Amino acid sequence: MRLYLRRTLTGFDPADDHARDIHKKYKLGEVYRADVVKPRSYKHHCLCMALLNITYENQDRYANFETFRKAVAMASGHVEELVTLDGEIVFTPKSISYDAIPDDVTFGKVMSQMMDVCVNILGGMNRSELQGEVAKYAMNHYGIAA
C-alpha cells in the first residue's frame, strides 16, 4: 500500500486525507517496512488533478472521469505507441502517476499540454483564467497554493 507522508519536526505525518485514512489502519507499536522516496512535486500533481477535475465538472461529453482523463492524455500527446500483431499502430494514453512520470521537468511539459487541451474544451476561457481557477480549486480541495 502506498501513502504520501510529510516530514515534520516529530517525524512523518500523512500528507493528505487519503494517506490519513490508510495511516489509521496500521497498529500503534508495530514495525513496518517502508521505502522513503521523494516523488515529483506533490503540489504539481495536485494542480494537475485540479485541472482535470475542473474541466471534467464543466464538460458534458464524458460521464466517467477516468475515460475523460485518458481522452485528455490522448489529445495532449501523452501517449504510448503500440504495434498490434497485425502491424497496425495504435496509441494508448499514458498514466500521470508518480511512477509513470517521476521527474518534474517531464511532468511540467505534460501538464502544459493538458492545460492547452482543457482551455479548448472549456471554450470562452483563456489559459491564465483557467490557471487561476485551477489554483483556487487546488487550495480548496487539497490545501495546495499555486
Salient structural properties:
single chain; 146 residues; alpha+beta; two-stranded antiparallel ribbon; two-stranded antiparallel sheet; 5 helices; 47% helix
Descriptive notes:
With 146 residues, this protein is an alpha+beta fold. The chain folds into 2 domains: 1-36, no CATH class; 42-142, no CATH class. It has helices at 17-23, 42-57, 65-75, 104-122, 127-142; strands at 5-8, 11-14, 79-83, 89-93. The strands form 2 sheets. The protein has a two-stranded antiparallel ribbon with strand order 1-2. Strand 1 (5-8) and strand 2 (11-14) form a beta hairpin. Helix 2 (42-57) packs parallel to helix 4 (104-122) and helix 2 crosses helix 5 (127-142). The longest helix has 19 residues, at 104-122. The protein starts with a strand and ends with a helix.
SSE blueprint:
Elements: E1 5-8, E2 11-14, H1 17-23, H2 42-57, H3 65-75, E3 79-83, E4 89-93, H4 104-122, H5 127-142
Antiparallel strand pairs: 1-2, 3-4
Helix pairs in contact: 2-4, 2-5
Tell me the strand percentage band. 5-15%
**Strand runs, count:** 4
pLDDT < 50 runs, ≥5 residues = none
By secondary-structure content and strand pairing, the structural class works out as alpha+beta
- What characteristic shape results from the CA principal axes? globular
Strand order of the largest sheet: 1-2
When the domains are counted, the total is: 2
Order of helical and strand elements: EEHHHEEHH
Average residue-wise pLDDT:
91
User: What's the N-to-C terminus distance?
Assistant: 28 Å
Radius of gyration: 18 Å
